[in-house]
Each structure stands twice: as C-alpha cells, then as structure tokens.
Amino acid sequence: MESRDSEKxxxxxxxxxxxxxxxKEKGFEDARLNAELLLxxxxxxxxxxxxxxxxxxxxxxxxxxxxxxxxxxxDHEPLQYIIGEARFMGLxxxxxxxxxxxxxxxxxxxEQVINKCRNFEGQINILDIGVGSGNIAVSLAKFIxxxxxxxxxxxxxxxxxxxxxxxxxNVSDRVELxxxxxxxxxxxxxxxxxxxxxxxxxxKQEFKEVSADVSRYEPRLAxxxxxxxxxxxxxxxxxxxxxxxxxxxxxxxxxxxxxEDVTRIFSEMGYVNLETVKDYSGNHRVVKAEWNIDACxxxxx
Length: 301
Fold this sequence. Notes:
By secondary structure, the protein is α/β, with parallel strands linked by helices. The chain is built from twelve helices and nine strands. Helix 1 packs across helix 2. The chain starts with 11 loop residues before the first helix and ends in a 9-residue tail after the last strand.
C-alpha cells in the first residue's frame, strides 16, 4: 500500500494477503487474524463475509479507513482498542484505553467462581475488586442466576466503560458499581460470600519487559502495582477477612511465577484450603482461598 500503488484497486483477498505478510514480517503474532478483523471492522462485515465476497474491490474511502486502522496496529495499539470491543466468556464487551483488555486466561478465574457457586442455595453476594471493563462482574451475573455482584474500581473512566457493558449485557439489576480505592476503608454495609479479583500483578521490574501493546496503551494502573507485584494480594487478603461471611472464599488471578508468594500471603493471614489452578498453558493462574472463622488460628486472625 505504498504511495505508488495509490491507483491500484485492492480486493479483499489481495488486501488480506498483503497485510498478513507485512504484519508477519514485522513480528506480529496472528497476523492473518489481525488483518481479517481490521478489515471486518472497516467494512462492517463478519469474518465469513470476507470469504464469500473475497473478490470485492474496496472503494477509496474504505481503503483509506483500513489504512488508518492498519497504521495504528503497526504502532502496536491493541487490536481490541482499534475495533472497540473484546470477547469474553462468549459475551461482547466494549473496550478502550480506559480499561484492561479482557484475556482468555481470566475466563479460568470466572469459571472457578461459577463452579463454586453451584453449591450455593439462596442469594450469593460477590465482590469484584477492580472491575475494569466489567468482564468479570458481568460474566458472573450472567451465568450465576442467584448472584448479586458489587464491583469497585478507583478509576472513574473504567466505571464508565463497565456501566456501558453492564447495560449492554442486561445485568443492570444485579451488578452495583462503586467508585472506591481498595486501600481506603471499605464501608459496604454487607458481607460477601465470595471476593474475586484480577489485580495489577506485574512487578515494576517485569513491566520494563512487557510488550509495547501493554506498556504503551493499556492503563498502567490496571497492569502493575509499581512495586513487587504482590501489593494488591496483601491488601485483598487482609481486607477480605472483615468483609467475608464467617465462611467465604477469595479467588484471585496471578502471574505465572507468583503461586508460592500469593499462597503464602493468604496462608499467613489465616486462610485455609488453599488451591491453585493452572491455565491452558500449564502455568499457575488462579489461587483459591477459604476464609473460615472457626478454622482460623487466633494468631493469624
């Protein structure tokens, strides 16, 4: 798509081929998928349409729009921000630079909470710490019929995005949003059965090595604690003891190398029945901890 090719007529199949090769040459993973989704966004097509209309020529207006999206991707802006949405648990979520992009591995966190709630009777009160786009809170409300979810976040921008996603997924009656800093005192006037969180867990040192997609575009407040990566786990383990019912559970997502540190934090704070769940790549991804006031030792509680 150089200037000398400005008069060239590009068909869908030619554009996908050229774009895929160029992205792959520049080191992008899933190059063809990126090209296809950008083109779908440009033409307002579904992916199947690209193959049923493969010989359609793009108009100059369509080509100019595609090129603007393509340049943004070359600058490592995440695909989800360019097209304005992401899929999570089979649901559609609006996303932009105010929120962390929902990731497939976080579905494991949600699935673990859903599995736990199968044994509950009556209303289940869940607290989501760091709601972001609302992907966790919305999914839990959507797939657990007897759940009421309270979701907090320090970012007003994130809460605006979450509110939109809550409305779009028709769970406004069962998800409450609160603007709150988890490091301030919590006055929620209720106890919870479950606390769930995907907190900022990239350490200050490791943040220097993350991809440009993350470091340049995703909100730093949602990715790193600016310290050792464990700050939020310490706070969640501490504060959850006073907001959980006498028997309750905490579910947190962790980085691949944090299993021992996070389980130790919860154990030292008096939690029992600690378990870790691995992701699809075999990395430790979710830590589950039970708060049981009767099983907790006095010194730890």
